[in-house]
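TICKET: design request
STATUS: open
ATTACHED STRUCTURE:
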């Protein structure tokens, strides 16, 4: 508990400190400047890091944190004993049916896709680059497409093996001059490897730039044309065999645990006697954890740089405090002659250093939030520094004041009052 006398002394020291700081505004501001820059840098870094984290997590999260990809992989990296993959090595419908039956509700769905190939569609003087993909209903749902006109591919289209397709708004912009309604019902003909594939357009989806196309011109961007998976199976060789597929973890399932079990089950059941190939399962949740860890490491590295700036600011505070004590030697001598103890003098200058750092920290927080807001708006993602981070910066700045103010304060407290009064 702080008694009344100590509280009055503390208030008096704070008032004395503020009076002294106001009397030397320019020097006070310059003393704070290092603290302001250091705290502002740390707050801005936390804000931008939060925006970057949201950006990456949104991009990867849209792929599905509950998604598990299963690939075919060679058992050995020795090319001398490897062989060309055959249909007996690939996944097939019977195998996938047995996998679904074995895991039951733990698997919400199996996503299957077929890449048929890429093509350039020319219409007069304009052209559009497209990639033809067949997707089943689970794979189509994982694309999270936003339909702008018409409808998406339905399970009825899948069962009826309907030759229908949905195209991007970028394709419509080039071929139909942006008129999405005109595109509906029209046929799209794609020449791929000396074969022609014709489908009826039933819907237009909104193209979302993944960032991979950065640096490409508008004419070079390749967008996807989606068709029913059952149609794609009939139009490509070995349509009933797959070298990869994805599963969606059921509600409440841990994707990482399911990933391990899925890989072990497939390898034990189907690939134990295979001389070259086996399955490899990879959880998107694991990717999210790795990316989050990488972003945290990056943020901590930037915060360390900000801490160095703060350290330089703290040394500046200590330097100015030493100068200030030298200038106020007679004042210290007078206070001691009037009965001030060493602890009183020490406390006075420690409080002064802490107030300087506290005020510098507050200004730094405001500046950092402002710069962070500008930077995140330019990025297109909102970001904020956490309340804990802001409070941590306030406590950190005051701790710096205590640490760097102690040496000058202790030096002032140990002055001989007689010699101090004689100081010119």
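STATUS: resolved
RESOLUTION: sequence designed for all positions
ATTACHED SEQUENCE:
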């Amino acid at each position: 508990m702080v008694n009344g006398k100590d509280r009055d002394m503390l208030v008096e020291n704070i008032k004395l400190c503020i009076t002294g700081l106001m009397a030397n505004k320019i020097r006070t501001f310059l003393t704070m400047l290092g603290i302001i820059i250091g705290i502002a840098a740390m707050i801005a870094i936390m804000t931008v890091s939060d925006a970057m984290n949201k950006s990456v997590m949104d991009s990867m999260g849209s792929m599905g944190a509950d998604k598990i990809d299963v690939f075919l992989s060679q058992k050995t990296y020795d090319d001398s004993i490897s062989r060309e993959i055959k249909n007996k090595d690939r996944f097939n419908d019977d195998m996938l049916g047995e996998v679904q039956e074995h895991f039951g509700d733990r698997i919400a769905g199996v996503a299957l896709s077929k890449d048929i190939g890429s093509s350039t569609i020319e219409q007069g003087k304009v052209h559009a680059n497209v990639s033809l993909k067949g997707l089943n209903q689970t794979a189509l749902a994982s694309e999270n497409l936003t339909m702008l006109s018409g409808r998406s591919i339905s399970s009825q289209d899948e069962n009826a093996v309907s030759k229908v397709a949905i195209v991007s708004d970028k394709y419509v912009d080039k071929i139909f001059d942006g008129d999405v309604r005109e595109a509906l019902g029209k046929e799209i003909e794609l020449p791929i490897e000396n074969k022609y594939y014709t489908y009826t357009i039933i819907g237009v989806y909104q193209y979302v730039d993944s960032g991979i196309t950065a640096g490409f011109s508008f004419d070079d961007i390749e967008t996807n044309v989606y068709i029913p998976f059952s149609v794609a199976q009939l139009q490509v060789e070995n349509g009933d065999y797959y070298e990869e597929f994805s599963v969606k973890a059921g509600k409440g399932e841990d994707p990482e645990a399911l990933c391990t079990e899925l890989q072990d089950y497939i390898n034990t059941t189907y690939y134990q006697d295979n001389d070259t190939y086996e399955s490899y399962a990879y959880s998107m949740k694991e990717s999210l954890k790795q990316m989050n860890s990488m972003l945290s490491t990056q943020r901590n590295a930037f915060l360390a740089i900000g801490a160095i700036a703060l350290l330089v600011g703290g040394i500046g505070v200590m330097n100015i405090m030493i100068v200030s004590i030298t200038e106020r030697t007679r004042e210290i001598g007078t206070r001691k002659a009037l009965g001030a103890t060493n602890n009183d003098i020490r406390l006075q200058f420690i409080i002064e250093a802490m107030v300087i750092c506290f005020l510098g920290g507050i200004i730094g927080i405001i500046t950092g939030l402002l710069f962070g807001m500008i930077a995140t708006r330019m990025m297109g993602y909102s970001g904020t520094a956490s309340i804990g981070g802001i409070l941590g910066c306030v406590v950190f700045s005051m701790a710096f004041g205590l640490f760097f103010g102690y040496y000058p304060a202790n030096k002032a407290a140990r002055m001989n009052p007689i010699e101090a009064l004689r100081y010119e």
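CLOSING REMARK: The longest strand covers residues 113-123. Residues 172 and 346 are 76 Å apart (CA to CA).
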